[in-house]
Amino acid sequence: MLKTALLSLLLALSCSVVAETLDGLWRLEDKPVWITIASDTGLVSYSKDDPDAQGKTLLRNLRVTNVGNRWQGQIYVKQLKAYTDADIILTSSDSMDINVKVGFMRRTVTWQRSTETPTLREE
Fold this sequence. Notes:
Elements: H1 2-18, E1 24-28, E2 33-38, E3 41-47, E4 57-64, E5 70-77, E6 82-92, E7 95-102, E8 105-113
Antiparallel strand pairs: 1-2, 1-8, 2-3, 3-4, 4-5, 5-6, 6-7, 7-8
């Protein structure tokens, strides 16, 4: 009976760790760029410096790993004009780091959850 109760408690705790999700609206920490993640894809919602990027796929093939709050997928790297592998870590419910390695170079960008996206103005 005690083993069953402990197993149930462990299962409930492990499910709460996996319950975190990337789905939602995110803002790049140091630039005016927003993305919307739904399911396994992240689309650009707004980019002040590149309005043509709106609606384009930035993240794709997102899948949760066996390590809590970590995902793997691919991110579009504009300089390479190609997708490259990315590791995503949900550092808190409102912050995620995307780690990308290209050759010997490694870069981490931080995104913050957001509640609204700016709109592109017609000029």
